[in-house]
Structures are given as structure tokens and as C-alpha cells.
Amino acid sequence: MAKKFSLAHLTALECSPPELTYIAARAGYDYVSLRPIYMGLPGEPNYALAEKKEMKKQTKKALNDTGLELLDIELARIDNGINPKDYEPAFEVAAELGGRHVLSSIWTDDRSFAIESFHELCDLANPYGLTIELEFVPIAAVYDLAGALDVLKATNQQNAGLMIDAHHFSRSRDRAEDLDQVPKEWFRYFHLCDAPGKIPDSKEEMTHTLREERLYVGEGGIDLANMLNRIPEIPYSLEIPHTKRAQELGYEEFARRCLQSAKDYLTNHVYSTS
User: Fold this and answer.
1) Which structural domain range is residue 38 located in?
2) What is the percent of the chain with per-residue pLDDT over 70, rounded to a whole number?
3) For the CA atoms of the chain, what is the radius of gyration?
């Protein structure tokens, strides 16, 4: 089975959803992954397609023109003061555009609230044919594999899954062997990137790397093969933001090099696990 790749929006966040879709197609990707949920982060572009009707129309046209599929949308954060129902317009957009998955992460320390909110997200997404994929993030409240599995087991939802990000898995100091205990059906796609082997001491340095300076696949020190050879063959979403490289190369060439590095690495290090 041919390996499938998506261009994650964070890799070229300055590009609007329609622009990113055309870039992904020209660079040779199979899917695109979009961020139509505006989080209000410093410097973050607003691509809230539920509100930006013309941009949504252009995105739909780009998907139709290129034949690419929408793999997932993000980010349905769970945090204090956020009502999961606020994400439903984005779910509707994702379904309209043919999307499959919604990425979520947990930033509140209130476990009961987190579990209740995640359960509600799954219920809200279900009528739209969407799954909710929980990602643990080393700078968030749910920061490692054990924390994510705790939530997934507690909520026990059919349309819930686990989304592993290679950078986050490494920084959480999880062991690849622990992936053997995860139900295979919980894996639906994987965030593929690389980073230096040395784990930063500070949260600030880690945040800088994960948002602005990840490395091409195989360029860094993360033991990617040990992770990837333990999970089913699923789409690889390339989330490799590197501000300087993208500016120097242009987003399309940068996206192309991200994809080539991934293909080269997988060919040489990963066997089919389907």
C-alpha cells in the first residue's frame, strides 16, 4: 500500500487554506490539514472558515480543482472557559469539505472537566462523521502518552483516537515500546517531523522549536523508526514548521523538501505494518 502524506497547516501557516491546498497539490501531497479554528495566538492568522464564507468557498474550489482530500482540522483545545459547542461550526465546515478528523489537546488541569469536555466533543463530532483525535503536547496539561490514554479510556468513545506527534512523543520522554499496548484502531494519522535529540531544558526553548524550528524527517535525533514500526500504516501529516527555511526557500519548495525527506526516510527505515 502506498504511503500517504498530508501537508499540515503549521508547516506553512502564513498560507491561507486555499493557497495551502494548491501548494500541497503541486508539491505532491495526497491530503491537506487545515486550521479553521481560530485560537487567537500572537501573530496567528485567522482562517475561521465558518465565518469567512468566501475563503471557505475558495478552499472548497481548491480541493475540487486539485483532487486533494482534507485529512483533518485543528485545533479543538480543551481548556477552562471553553465550551465544546463553540467548535460545532468548524465541525460543520470540516464535514462540508470532506474532512475526516478533528485534532484536540487538553490544557486544563481539571481532569473531570477535561474528560467531560472530550466526551462532549466526540458527541458533537459524531453526526458529522468526524473522529476526535487526542494529541498530547509537552507544554500542555495532558503532556504524555499515559495522560492521553487515561482520557481515551475514561471517555470510551468509538470516534475517539490517539494522534502521536513525533516531536511531542520525544519531548515527553515516552518509550516507543509503550505504543505496543495502544489499540491499533486508535491510530488514524501521525504528525511526522524531526528535531534535535537533546531535549530542551526550558519550556520557552521547547515552544520555539515545536512552533518555528522543527527539522526535516531524518535530519534530527528522534528515533522515528522505533515509533513508526510499532503502529499501523496510516497517513503521515508533515508538521515541520521552520520559519527561516520557509522564508528562504518559499513555502512550496519548502513543502516539497519536507515531503521528499519523509519519503526517503520511510523508504529506508520503515516497513509496512498494515
Assistant:
1) 5-269
2) 99
3) 17
**DSSP tag of 14:** T
Q: Is residue 51 domain-resident? A: yes
Q: DSSP assignment of 174-218, as one string?
A: --GGGGGGS-GGGEEEEEE-B--SSPPSSHHHHHHHHHHB-B-TT
> Whole-angstrom Cα distance, residue 250 to residue 14?
11
pTM of the predicted protein model: 0.95
Q: How many angstroms separate the CA atoms of 255 and 260, rounded?
A: 9
- pLDDT surpasses 70 at 274: no
Q: Decide if 52 is inside a domain.
A: yes
274 in any annotated domain = no
The total of structural domains in the chain comes to 1
Q: Is 213:245 a contact under the CB 8 Å cutoff?
A: no
| Gap between the Cα atoms of 198 and 55, Å rounded | 41
Q: Are 190 and 231 in contact (CB under 8 A)?
A: yes
Q: Evaluate whether residue 229 is within a structural domain.
A: yes
Determine the number of helices (DSSP H) and then strands (DSSP E) in the chain.
Answer: 10, 8
Kindly report the average pLDDT of the chain as a whole number.
96
- CATH assignment at residue 144: 3.20.20.150
φ, ψ of residue 134 in degrees (nearest 5): -85, 125
Cell of 57: 468557498
pLDDT at 272 over 70: no
Distance of alpha carbon 224 from alpha carbon 165, whole angstroms: 10
- Please, is 153 exposed, middle or buried when counting C-beta atoms within 10 Å of its C-beta (0-12, 13-18, 19+)? exposed
